[in-house]
């Protein structure tokens, strides 16, 4: 009897000890993630010369940029001009380096050689934090936090007290109001991790509202309408066109029919811009853009 009782006691202890193994594994993954963040080196953002807020209101000139990821050349003597008060469209096949260019503009990565000029000054003269404050980026992946709708759309404005009326106008422009007003707590509705309780189109519109609320000078839309239906997309494109009246707009898209709203279309191939001009100019030129359109027409039966 004594043996059995002691055995059961020891057994219970072992069971308890083993039950910690899955918990330990979860904790280890979390700790690894934390250390990954802690070990990121601080960006050298305060040493540069120009410290006033940048008002990007001139042509952004990208001059002979070279950039490689692990010896794989992505941008090869890449040059391009981005005009203010215009919709500057960038197109090119998947993996050609469009988002890489955006990462360079935002200062997330550094070019191996070449320069970007903002208001006629080398980008390295500005504080990275100022550049990022002047640019609103709607990136390809919707990034949302496990917070309320309100906090998610306001966190780039640094003004949590923005009044509901202003938010409502922006939500209308981003075509997000229609699903937010149906939510139980509306703006105070909680999102689950990365907004998984919303559809991808809804997540995209929430992120769009967040960027529109940011008081920036340059707006970059990297595949901003990829998850939207045709009607919603049409309204968002109108919003983008409207924005370009006063701001610099860069739009990256795979949907060639959307390039109709462009003032200038840049076609990227082999690490550089191979063609640029207005929609009609490029059609008449019968070059790469024209060929892409023809291919698109054949594949999708689209009439452009
Ligand atoms: N962090 C990275 N490390 C290594 N290679 C990368 C990294 N990010 C992108 N690449 C590579 O760089 C190339 C360009 O990627 P990029 O994301 O700029 O393409 P993209 O033109 O935006 O494509 P898509 O239209 O699919 O978004 C791709 O071949 C990609 O595999
Ligand atoms: Mg991309």
Could you give me the name of the CATH homologous superfamily of the largest domain? P-loop containing nucleotide triphosphate hydrolases
Biggest sheet: strands side by side, in what order?
6-7-8-3-9-10
Query: CA-to-CA gap between the ends?
Result: 87 Å
CATH topology grouping of the largest domain: Rossmann fold
* Rough outline: globular
Instruction: Give, in order, the helices and strands.
Output: HEEEHEEHEHHHHEHEEEHH
Secondary structure class reads alpha/beta
Whole-angstrom Rg: 24 Å
> Which percent band covers the strand fraction?
15-25%
User: What is the helical fraction, as a range of percent?
Assistant: 25-40%
Ligand catalogue: adenosine-5'-triphosphate, magnesium ion
What does this structure look like?
The structure is a single chain. It contains 10 helices and 10 strands. It has 2 domains: 1-40; 60-300, P-loop containing nucleotide triphosphate hydrolases (Rossmann fold, 3-Layer(aba) Sandwich), CATH 3.40.50. The protein is an alpha/beta fold and 304 residues long. The termini are far apart. Strands 6-7-8-3-9-10 form a 6-stranded mixed beta sheet, with helices on both faces. A 4-stranded antiparallel beta sheet has the order 2-1-4-5, covered by helices on one side. α5 (164-173) crosses α7. Bound molecules: adenosine-5'-triphosphate (ATP) and magnesium ion. Adenosine-5'-triphosphate (ATP) binds at residues 69-70, 74, 92, 94-100, 140.
């Amino acid at each position: 009897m004594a043996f059995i009782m002691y055995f059961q006691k020891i057994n219970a202890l072992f069971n308890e000890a083993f039950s910690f193994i899955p918990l330990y594994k979860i904790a280890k993954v979390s700790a690894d993630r934390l250390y990954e963040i802690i070990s990121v080196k601080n960006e050298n953002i305060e040493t540069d010369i120009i410290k006033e807020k940048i008002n990007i209101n001139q042509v952004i000139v990208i001059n002979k940029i070279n950039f490689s990821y692990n010896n794989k050349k992505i941008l090869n003597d890449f040059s391009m001009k981005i005009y203010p008060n215009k919709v500057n469209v960038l197109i090119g096949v998947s993996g050609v380096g469009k988002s890489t260019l955006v990462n360079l503009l935002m200062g997330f990565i550094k070019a191996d050689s070449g320069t970007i000029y903002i208001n006629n000054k080398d980008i390295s003269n500005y504080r990275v934090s100022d550049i990022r404050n002047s640019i609103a980026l709607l990136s390809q992946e919707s990034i949302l936090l496990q917070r309320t709708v309100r906090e998610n759309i306001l966190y780039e404005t640094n003004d949590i007290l923005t009044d509901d009326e202003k938010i409502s106008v922006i939500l209308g422009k981003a075509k997000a109001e229609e699903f937010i007003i149906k939510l139980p707590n509306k703006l105070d509705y909680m999102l689950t991790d990365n907004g998984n309780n919303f559809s991808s189109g809804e997540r995209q519109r929430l992120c769009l509202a967040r960027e529109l609320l940011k008081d920036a000078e340059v707006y970059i839309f990297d595949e901003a309408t990829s998850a939207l239906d045709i009607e919603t997309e049409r309204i968002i494109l109108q919003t983008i066109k409207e924005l370009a009246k006063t701001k610099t707009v860069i739009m990256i898209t795979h949907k060639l029919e959307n390039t109709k709203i462009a003032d200038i279309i840049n076609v990227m191939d082999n690490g550089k811009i191979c063609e640029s001009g207005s929609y009609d100019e490029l059609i008449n030129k019968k070059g790469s853009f024209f060929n892409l359109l023809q291919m698109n027409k054949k594949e999708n039966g689209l009439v452009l």
